[in-house]
Known about the structure:
The chain has 95 residues and is α+β, with helices and mostly antiparallel strands. It has helices at residues 18-27, 65-75, and strands at residues 4-14, 34-38, 40-42, 45-47, 56-63, 84-93. β3 and β4 (45-47) form a beta hairpin.
Amino acid sequence: MNGQPMLLLTIISEAVLESTLIDEIMAMGAKGYTISEARGRGTHGIRSGKWSASGNIRIEVVGDSDLCRHIVDNLQKYERDYGLLIFTSQVELLN
């Protein structure tokens, strides 16, 4: 299939930031997002993944490199006070 190359921006964050991050992501031009529960272990310790303000969420956004860079640049301000991991992967949009 000939798909359109895009980036998948993945944000792992404390659940308490969910509404704030979504508001900012949409205001920066994202067309949509997916949120799922996330749990694991990292530099901030073990996260239980309970779907509450103490758990973690995974937010995924598909966009071009300019949109993803814009979102990353604007969300890095939260790294100082919250557990936040942001990364991109190349994806091929098929529909």
